[in-house]
């Protein structure tokens, strides 16, 4: 049961293309980069 609770956390790192050992600064940097790409005012859906 404990492993089930840890799995979503790993998925969050994968969404940011980071390893679970990433530093706080790496997490912030990756989040900001992805947020800029997919921001609703900038992102244009290809469909």
Can you walk through the features of this model?
With 47 residues, the protein is mainly alpha-helical. The chain has one domain (2-37). 60% of the residues lie in helices and 0% in strands. The protein contains 2 helices and no strands. The longest helix has 14 residues, at 2-15. The radius of gyration is 14 Å and the shape is flat.
Fold blueprint:
Layout: H1 2-15, H2 24-37
Features:
0% strand; 47 residues; mainly alpha
Radius of gyration: 14 Å
CA-to-CA gap between the ends? 40 Å
Report the β-strand fraction as a percent range: under 5%
Number of domains: 1
Question: Which bin fits the share of residues in helices?
Answer: 55-70%
What value does the average pLDDT take?
Answer: 82
Q: Tell the overall outline.
A: flat
Poorly predicted regions are none
Number of strands: 0
- Oligomeric grouping of the chains: single chain
The total count of helices amounts to: 2
Class from secondary-structure proportions:
mainly alpha
Main sheet makeup: none
Give a summary of the structure in a few sentences.
This protein is mainly α and 47 residues long. The protein has helices at residues 2-15, 24-37. The radius of gyration is 14 Å and the shape is flat.
């Amino acid at each position: 049961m404990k492993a089930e609770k840890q799995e979503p956390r790993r998925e969050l790192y994968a969404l940011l293309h980071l390893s679970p050992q990433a530093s706080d600064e790496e997490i912030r940097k990756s989040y900001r980069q992805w947020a800029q790409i997919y921001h609703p005012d900038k992102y244009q859906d290809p469909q």
